[in-house]
User: Fold this.
Amino acid sequence: MTGYTPLLPEGILIGVAALVILVGLFIEKKKILGYFTLIGLLASLGLTISSWNITTAYTGAPFYGAIVVDPFAQIFNMMFLFVGILVCIAALDAYGDHKNQDEFYALMLLAIVGMMTVALSKDLVALFIGFELASISTYAMAGFDKHDPKSIEAAMKYFLIGGLSSSLMVFGMSYLYGLTGSTNIDTIAAVFAENTALIGTPAILLAMVMLIAGFGFKMAFVPFHMWAPDTYEGAPSIVSSLLAAGSKKMGFAAAFRVFIIGLIAMKLDWYIAFVILAVVTMTVGNVLAVVQKSVKRMLAYSSVAHAGYIAIVFAIVAYPYASADATGLAVAGGILHAFSHAIGKAGAFIAVGAVTYMLMSKNAVDGDPNHIDNYDGLGRRAPLTALLMTIMLLSLAGIPPTFGFTSKWYLFLSAIKGGLLWLAVICVLNSALSVYYYAKVIMRMYWGEPKGDAFIEPPMYLFAMTIAVIALIALFFVPDGVYYWADAAAHALLGV
Amino acid sequence: MIGPISAIMLTLVVGAIITLLTNSTAQARAVAIVSSFIALAISIWMFLTYELNPVTHLAFEEGSANNWISSIGIGYHVGVDGIGLPMVLLATIVCALGTVYSWSESKRPNQFFALVLLMDLTLIGVFVSLDFFMFYVFWELTLLPMFFLIGVWGGPRKDYSAIKFLIYTHIASVIMMLGIFAMYYYNGINTGVYTFDMMTLLHSYPTLPISSFWKNFIFGALMFGFIVKMPSVPFHTWLPDAHVEAPTVGSIILAGVLLKMGGYGLFRVLLPMIPNASPYFIYALALFGLVSIIYSPFAALAQKDIKKLVAFSSIGHMGFISLGVAASVAAGLEGPRILAHTGAMFQMFSHGIITAVLFGSCGVIEHHTHTRIIDDLGGLTKKMPKFAILMVAGFFASLGLPLCSGFVAEFSILGGSFQTLPIFVALAAVTIPFTAGYHLWAVQRTLWGPYNEYLGDIKEIKWYEFATLAIWTILFIVLGIYPQPIFNMMQDTATYFITSGNILPIGGIPI
Assistant:
């Protein structure tokens, strides 16, 4: 067993998930299972953080090199677990009385195990299994409010488009296997490095297009983003939080591994694709976010825009004139930005969930509970929620003193370092544009006229948001630890 | 043991947090006044015991480079010199008296006073930072308290003005950020040490072996960030809107200190870089200054709202700073260049105090008569004689009357610039009658003439308004007669900059 201790975080989660389902069959008061889930996640997070810098590759049975534990996998696992903890805490309020809440917890745990598997895998098959585990669990979660037609619609769209994207991805993977005779990402990279004749052949181009499309769906790149706003808006807020903060980052973990390791020999070919995707994604995301009337949908589009920022990492890594430290900085910056976005976006969706919850508890909903009109005067009706949400929005907008600012600083710095000034200019102008729609929500919260009396703020939602905000502010002031980790992750990924 | 600069910042942070937790005007005001006056006392103490370290040419230095986020070379490094210390003093004076001025603020007093303290903190942070990361963080942070001050306590078009202020200046800041990145990166390549330390980067910039595109990009991006904040015509459009809608103390801080961030950036960041910049940038800077100086009186003449008139007057006065900076680096004798440099620095301090009186007066008028439209006013002297004295003093100081600090500043700038930029000075001088004209005309229409009976029975100025305006008035008169304490401090720094070769005169400017 000792050799497998680095995989203990995943093992714990699987065990807890099985227990939660099993025990849930026999007990009436299921809220306790939520706390149990939380303990499992915390234990798993503790183990992940304590072993952040180990590197273990499982070469023999039963993994045959498919699984590798390294700082890159661990930092993504830490992100997934952190988001899982936030969602789990919020779920204690959101589904505290729900009769099927055990299923929610179990599905969430399995989704997180799936995401962690993707981060750990160095093999296309393992990667695909993890992808599907996370996807199928989240399909069910998106439709968890089964009496709400919007939730069902969200789940349906997510499921259909997710299924399509999975099939495209497998299609691309099958070509890679056909061309190289291996599903191991390192072996694929080695084969391409040796047989330069393969580069630029139609088969490999087709494989890359399929993979970009497949991963692009999960990462919500424009034009594969159509499902994201509908799903994020319709799904229960805390599930949206898991989707935007967790499942999307899983797409990045997979794309980092497959493109930056496996297909690095073809970087000139995917450079153009990712540059265009990045610019289009961030611009479309931001422009569409500006016009949204629903806060939740606005957050969904902002999530699309953030995918665009992170996508510049691929452009910088593939840029032929970028220096070696620029690529390292870019990957580290991308990971940091993914992390800051995960915390900020998870927290913001939880805040939206809290507002819906408060409105529901007052029976004060007419129409869409996420409509921006409901946020008028929130600063006085629910002062803590408004304050915490403000800080999270500022972090998403990249305004100090928040982690979102430093991660953007790091990411855009790497663009300049890589010599892509024009890309950096587009990024910062987009980022400046994004301030508009975040500020609009803050304005409504603080100087809109309240439409009712004060709310009773739900404690567990508040607790989850407080953790997120503390993390955002603490990581601004004391970022060294996570910087070193991201740096180590970048080195592990790039193998330098 | 923490140094005085950290002590000021800590006082203001703690003060702001405690203020936020209070629940009445009296409590919030008491905490805010105490903490802002502690900050003022510390800065006065710094002013009195100011002594430069001969090696680093800094005083009250704390922290060091790269000690905060060492992996990418970010440090907590603060310190002041003859440029920074007067600005810290200005920020603490304006903000401390600003809290007294807002004595009777009754709308969400705890948040209001906390935001004023945060404003003070972030402004001081800009003036003391010696690390580009910190500098940029504080630079951005100044936006937030002002955004909320305009938004929550502002006038009818507050939504539009607050968001315009935020987005407009934020765009300028992010462009500036890219300039900082490029400087960081090329310095790193050149020396092998990646750091955001301001002194290291500024010292190495003139000798960086980089293409002229990147040189110009770095300089242009930083300059853009600064002149939008100043603001120079044609990037000034956010300012009148922000002023018209901001609450009075917001306007006082905005015009009195926040605009000075742009001027401070010119002195602190751009001047040491100039030897390696294209001379066209110096032209551009002088031209921006000149256009602002010429544009402002004519725009002000057309205003119906007295606050907007004062806002446009700020644009002209800030134009003198750009002109002085440009003149101090153009090829010429050392003496006049030092004079122009010192005058421009002194203008920042002087304008900060004078404009506080002007906006304070606008606030008093609005508070007592419930209008700011000049045509609706008239004959206020009859009802508010004490107020009239202060307002007249403020407007006369603003138009550049001798014996007031504004005269000293603008006279030094024009006198110092004449040798290097004579045509610019001549054109700027032509507008002086118009500047005098709109000030006098505004005073004439509001204070003198027949009293407008529609205003009803208005009361005399409140004691706290009178006291703050009077202190500012005394300050600018004292500095107009005896400017040496601050002027000499600035002159030492200017002399150091100009004679130590930190600023090389750029040759070949034909005007």
User: Anything to note?
Assistant: The two ends of chain A are 31 Å apart (CA to CA). Strands of chain A lie at 56-57, 68-69. Chain A has a mean pLDDT of 92.
